[in-house]
Here is the input.
Amino acid sequence: MDAKRRLLAVTLAVMLSSVTSLPVQAEYTDDTWLENVIGPELLALGDEFGCHGLEDISPEEDTETVGACSQYVASRINASRWGQNLISFGTPEGEISENLTEALVEEGFRIVGDMSESDDPRLRVIARNGGSIESGLSDRSLIENSEPGKLVSLYWIARIDDMNIRRDRDVVDWLSEQPYWFTTWGEWVTHEESSSRITVNLINGSIEIRNPSSLGWATPGTIKITGLADRPDMEWSDGGYAPLDPEENRLRGGYRYSNDTLIITIPQGESVILSGVQEDDIQVEATLFNDLEKGVTIAGHHATNMREWSQDFRDTPLRFTWLIERSEIPERTLFLPILALSVLIATPLAIRWVLIKDKEDASYNWSSNLDAVRNHLPDNS
Here is the structure.
């Protein structure tokens, strides 16, 4: 019985040494779909690529993950068709700390969301106000009842640990048919800024509308001119753009005239001259692209694999703000093979030691017992 106990104890000790050893270091994977095929296709369609950091590391706890994620994404794909630099970052829920704010600003990020709070004027916070498009969690009424002229941002994640998430097909199909501007976080913000910079001036009896260039993204801007008696003649500085259809919901340069109202989307660095228009008779204001009712984007959170995250939406007009996260894998080292070899060698040696020790104890006990018996025998001398 003692031999069995010794054998069990030694075996457990060898086994426990494998689970109490130092943890294996980790490295981060590269999503090849980000820079090959899928990523470039989505970029050309109008999607945006931002950051969510590194897997299982909160940027609030380690602000260096902001720069690491930025370098990872920026070295593989542009942020948008309007600009190369990344400007959108998925931040943790709650108030954004000063340290994280400085790290974000230093890396060029100025749009954050979508369950975060910040009073810093350098950051634009996007709220998750449209719910999710996950099956069983989506709420169409949040989109329908949202305020006109504002951005509706929805949530999407394709996988949580080993569980795949299903989209709500009915909501996706319904949303795809709505007269909304399908946009992204960065496109929405920079279009708004671009629109605010457009100038309207009277020159030689005509009206010149100009959109100056900026140092950031080259996103077009849109204005609405009302009070026109008739459709004006238009002379573009760069040759002109095709008219916009009322149903168009993908941002581009162009114009649309209807009911004494002219909608013009002007690329940065360009201008258009309207002839036969009296400045005193018109009103000018910034508006959404194509004067659509509202903007809609879907934020793809913790996007570690672009094929998995985007495959359910390839045939829809919906546009995504992809918050890229670099996933972690165990580092390939010799530690585990060496540990396994050590266990293979140590176990039989330990068993042999136990058997030898047990044999020695048995021999000793037999000799002791024999002496005890002899001491109890009568002395015949």
